[in-house]
Amino acid sequence: MVSETGGRKTGVGIKVEREVKFPMSSWQQGEVMLMRAQGEVLEPRYFELNSLFDFPTGTLRKRGEALRLRRVQDRGWLTFKGPAQTVEGMKHRDEYETTLDDADALERILVTLGMEEQFRYEKYRQTYRLRDIEACLDETPIGFFIELEGEVDGIEEAIRNLELLMDRALSLDYPTLYADHRRRFPAAPRFMVFPEDRQPR
Length: 201
Prior knowledge:
CATH superfamily: Hypothetical Protein Pfu-838710-001
Largest sheet: 8 strands, antiparallel, barrel
Number of strands: 9
Number of helices: 5
């Protein structure tokens, strides 16, 4: 579901998240592919900070769930994600999301309730409408990706229009991709964040 606020839902949303990612060699490659597929830019490139909260015992993680606090400039969203399943290469999971007037206040509430920030990840994102789905072009500390989210038929059509190959599809979320990255590069920092000179001022 795409809103008029530029690619993010407003109010409270309950849905089944269906998404898949494809690695890109560069930001430019992703832009060219989306333009050729007649993608409409909903929100130009912006910086996004995401924090995953859980209890110290990892209650949510052990159940395959996630609670994410997202910040984009002065806007905020709180999202709960249920356990994920991969069906034909696409990730499916229940998702509950609401907008926030004060993300800092919500974070203080979570900490007061005994939760901790377990993981943090950053990205630069540009959102597109690609027919009936949302397409996101992401730059992350571990590479560039196009993420497609929507109904299965719409995602499959977008994959064909973008001339992507399903054998390159990734159904993993960014925390899991970063955990794989750290296994290959043990010296990588704990959180998936850009160097100080890459972060917006």
